[in-house]
Amino acid sequence: MTAPALHLQGISKRFGVTRALDEVDLRVERGSIHGLVGENGAGKSTLIKVLAGIHRADSGTLAIDGQVLRGFGPRQIEALGVHFIHQERLLPGSFTVGEALFFCHELRYGPFLRRRAQDREAARLLREYFALEFPPGALVSELDSAQRQILQITRALLAKPKILVFDEPSVSLVKREVDQLLAIIRGLRDQGLTIVYISHYLQEIESLCDRVTVLRNGRTVAVVDPRSTSTAQVARLMVNRDVGEMYPKTVVTPGEVVLQLKGLGAGLAYRDINLSLRRGEVVGLTGLVGSGAKELLKSLFGLVQPERGSVHLHGQVTRFKSPRDAVRKGIALVPEERRIHGVAPLLSVLENLTLAGLSRFTRACLLNAADEARESDRLIAELGIKTAGHDTAVRHLSGGNQQKVALGKWLGRDCTVYLLDEPSVGIDIGAKVEIYRLISRLARQGAAVLVLSSDLPELIGISDRILVMHRGALAAEFDAGQVDSDRLLACATGAHEGTAPGLCPVRETQHALV
Amino acid sequence: MPWSEILAQPLARRLGLLVLRRGSSGAFLLILAVLAVTAPNFLSPGNIANVFAQSAILGILAFGLTCVVIGGGSNVVAGGLDLSLAANLGLCAAVYSSLNNAGFDTVQAIGLTLLCGLAVGALNGFTVVVLRLPPLLATLASMNLIAGLELVLTQNSVLPTDSALLDTLAMGEWLQVPALAWMLLAVALLLGLLIQHSPYGLRLYAVGEYPEAARAAGLRVGLYVFSSYLIAGLCAGVAAFCSAAYFSGSTTGSGDMLLSVVAIAFLGVVFSRRLVANIPGTLLATLLLGFLINGFQLLNIASFWVNGVQGVLILLVVAMSSALRKEEGGL
Amino acid sequence: MTTLAATAVSRPLLSRLLRGILPLLIVAIVAFFSVAAPGFLSLGNLSSLVLNNFVLLAIVAIGMTWAVAAGGIDLSVGTAVDFASLAFVVLLNGGYGLVVAIPGALVAGALVGSFNAGLIAGLGITPFLATLGTLFIGTSVQQLLSDGGQPIYIAQPVLPGLTAVTWLGMPLPLWLVLAVATVYGVILARGRLGREILAVGTQVQLARYSGLSIRQISLKVFIASALACAVAGIVLSSTVNAYVPMSGNAFLINAIGAVFMGTTLSRTGRANIPGTLLGVLFINVIANGLLLIGWNFYWQQVATGGLILLVLAFSFASRRQSPSY
Questions:
Q1: What is the percent of chain B where pLDDT is above 70?
Q2: How confident is the model over B137-153, as a mean pLDDT?
Q3: Which residues of B191-222 are buried (b: 16+ CB within 10 A; e: fewer)?
Q4: Which chains share 3+ C-beta pairs under 8 angstroms with A?
Q5: Comparing A36-45, A189-198, C83-92, C212-221, which segment has the lowest mean pLDDT?
Q6: Which of A96, B42, B62, B149 is the most buried (most CB within 10 A)?
Q7: Does C266 touch chain A (CB under 8 A)?
Q8: Domain A255-330+416-514, what architecture?
Q9: Which chains touch C (3 or more CB pairs under 8 A)?
Q10: Cα–Cα distance, C31 to C25 (Å, whole number)
Q11: Residue C288: is its pLDDT beyond 70?
């Protein structure tokens, strides 16, 4: 048997007291697609950073084509033919496609750049590899995420790599783009490249990979063949705990209408939206990228201004002029970009939890520290936020606990409407269940909850009814108990209209654990 | 802001965007046209050459700042900034005058002066890259330090000096264009080639805009940032010769130029499609300011207005480009 | 980031040491000067040190602390000082009493602040460039008003030594610093506005998504900053009995230096009033001590610049060391 293309053995890495990697093994055969899966925090990204030479392992060896390496940096790794496609698209936005593609391997004329030649060559390569045409002179910032991803792959291919490592490449892609990406990767394997594919979408792994290494808590727990192992089995290996009671849904009889939209419309984003939210109700909202669902949610928090129609809150016509205005009127938003809009990682748990309702702690312009501490301790206990104390900075909390903080800051305000934008993205399975419980509890306590999610099984599991948007209009409404992902998806893509979907489906039921 | 929101905006706003884009160059031409009509002799070749020459000192300093802003990113607090440039010029001019008066030969005096500029650049680079101080603070502190050194050297007085080099710079002409104007154009050409047309420049942009991307591509980000401060230091050294030629020696109060330099470098941003700092844009901004000051002189408007006009210009331009950025998405 | 945080866990001692560097340095420097410069610890010297140098810089730096805490910077502090001073002197010379002149000066300062606030909150210009523009325009206006920088002296002796008044044995200007510091300090550390400033300064988007009004907060911050400067402007013109155009700019750099030195003292690396005051004291003690041991003004500037650089370097080194805040 020939030496494996890539062989990591006994890799350990500590960060202070936490053991990120504990004797991890990863053996990748030449010319194969090797999957690497694990929950968030299982050590996938640390392992990749060790491989990329960004982190130095405390112990263990790395061999490429049977040749053992000692003391290597990003440059050496690249020189050996290992290239990385990162999750974040690492391309400067103000660069043209040509500049980005040849960045650090510029085409020159003596000491000078050959910009035209670069742009020409870039166009040729993209056409040749992927049959793609970008507008001439396009800047990276003008491309969508799939185009940027392809640009990165092309960039890696330019260096004639032997091993390509994809680190969660599909996170911000929609279904059609994912299919395209997977086809490209298969093509690359058939040309003899060795591929390492990291993802937590098990369906991608199942359809793509020849072998899969499963990581859990920094250890290699199994190496399996996805053709003979079901995704459910792989999921069990990843979490090692029962995920049965995933959607704790209690039946609540909806109360009076809290928020009503009549013929709401904003530019080309959405139009003619009629919907009502009742007390004690969880309403799911979904739609493709560009369907207008995101803009609709933003309108309800004063971030986008509708131009037509009216919003009624408790029966009164109203308008949300700004987020501040919306908050004052009892609207709460748990945003998608958690670390930018949801919590401040550098501030303490207390400062985050009390920020949205400072007036409750204010006497004569001053804050009552004891009240604040009592209230945040109460919230920490109530939401089960795992933290050393209310003075800990939020950046030390896990994604799920950060999300609880983002939700918790609204709890003291007695909001009447909760808007949740992709509430479970990027948090692990255990924390997801807790977030779902919280959502259900909010409804039980009489709030109206609107959840925007592209995780359809999740939406079916937690909502009472589900609204689907398609090309700026409400396409359909379903009772959550009587619909499945396929029908929701068909509706969101417009398939039932018999039209070919011009826009792409939202990321569909790809999540492993549902 | 996602594309859908942009598309959702009415046509009028999209039109506004276009006006904003072309606005800066249009405003420049308008100012020139107004001055050309109102100010006597404004468009005479002699006067134009004169403006170029008078802009040399500010312009060369602003080129240095432009490089630093490119390498450090355009966020003024956390990004690249060199507030010590003007003080560095003062120190270099003082060093050159002292060396020249002390009888050092031409090559030594020039070499040591440029070395002084580079040393200040290296100090800034060290504090920013190695000590990781925010550039705003690091260069503010080094500005104080350098201004103090200049005071020690000159005892807060003018050090007159005279040399063949300064004579050539001050009096020399080629093709009826003064030597200082040639200096400005030469530095602009050199840095323009380096920054806009060489791999180094492209990488410097990447380092400033998206350091993670540069790092992932295997660049040593710190080295690039450090080098941008060295270029700035060198620019201060070169500008010092122009200043010494213009004033026949070192003068006090060179620190006053700082704010104009900052204004010019940030004004230059609007003359680019990508709204990034760039050498040709900085050259245009320098000349715009030069023409304004010159026009005011020709129109006999009190020079006190100059600062105010500069201030209004910065605010206008920045408000415009921040509006533009808001329209185009991102913060 | 994880690696940095991780290595720091094992070194809490070092980080604590670094954090304590500024107080230690001040103690060391005071000790050094009291030995090297015999007159340093004398009552006369200390009071002149405090009165002549500390008061003005302290008040300006207090205003600057708010601007920095809100994630901005105020380059136009000098303009606010000057405008307040100008209004104060003009009103006094116009025959109005202190009752009119003092509020007038405060209003003049607040106008500068409102101009900044309008640019920042209204037009969305970054504070650095907005206040830079204000500084330019302010300079131009002053030059035009004062014929290129001629001082305006207070005509009649209406100020029988406002600065010489003492109360409970403490000179009036010092009471002023105490009052301004208390108000600004308590609001920043314990007030609702202080927490909002912190949120805006740390993560402006979160503040917006939490329903805070960024505009109102920056409005308050920049007006408050200018108001503090206006107080300094009043003290300045009562001390020198004149309005000297563009004299306020002298405080800018030291004020910024003092504020950032003050952040070293905070466990969390946040701008805070007590820290700022210590920073101001540090700058003044050095300048005064160097003067007493016979260094001239020029060398003082070199030494101060070098020391500020050193302290800032330590400040940011300690921040990187601290594992959590």
A1: 88
A2: 88
A3: bbebbbbbbebbbbbbbbbbbebbbbbebebb
A4: B, C
A5: A36-45
A6: B62
A7: no
A8: 3-Layer(aba) Sandwich (3.40)
A9: A, B
A10: 10
A11: yes
Locus of tokens 């003067």: C291
- Do the chains contact at A78 and B218, CB–CB below 8 Å? yes
C136 with B142: Cβ contact below 8 A = no
CA dist A475 to A236, A466, A491, A495, C145, Å?
Answer: 36, 11, 7, 11, 67
Instruction: Give residue B169's identity as a one-letter amino acid code.
Output: L
Q: Answer whether B151's CB lies under 8 Å from C310's CB.
A: no
Answer whether residue B239 shows pLDDT above 90.
yes
Chain segment A260-281, per-residue pLDDT in tens? 999 998 887 888 899 999 998 9
**The dihedral sign for the CA sequence C304, C305, C310, C316:** positive
What are the tens digits of pLDDT across the range B271-325?
777 778 889 989 988 998 888 888 888 888 877 787 788 788 778 777 776 666 6
What does DSSP assign to residue A339?
I
Q: Tens digits of per-residue pLDDT, A176-194?
A: 677 878 888 888 888 888 9
With contacts defined as CB-CB under 8 Å, which chain C residues touch B127? 309, 313
| C208, two tokens | 């917006």
Please tell me the predicted confidence (pLDDT) of residue B36. 85
The CB density around residue C28, as the number of other CB atoms within 10 Å, is 11
Cα–Cα dist C181/C170, whole Å: 16
pTM for the full predicted model: 0.80
CATH number, domain A6-239: 3.40.50.300
Q: CATH code for B44-328? A: 1.10.3470
Q: Give DSSP secondary structure letters for A20-70.
A: EEEEEEEEE-TT-EEEEE--TTSSHHHHHHHHTTSSPPSEEEEEETTEEE-
ipTM of model over 0.85 = no
Quote the distance between the C-alpha of residue B161 and its chain's center.
26
The reply to whether residue A304 touches residue B209, judged by beta carbons under 8 angstroms, is no
Delimit the domains of chain A by residue range: 6-239, 255-330+416-514, 343-414
Can you give the residue ranges of every domain in chain B? 44-328
- In chain C, the domains with their CATH numbers are 2-321 (1.10.3470)
Here the tokens at position C315 are 């400040």
Which pLDDT score, from 0 to 100, does residue B41 have? 81
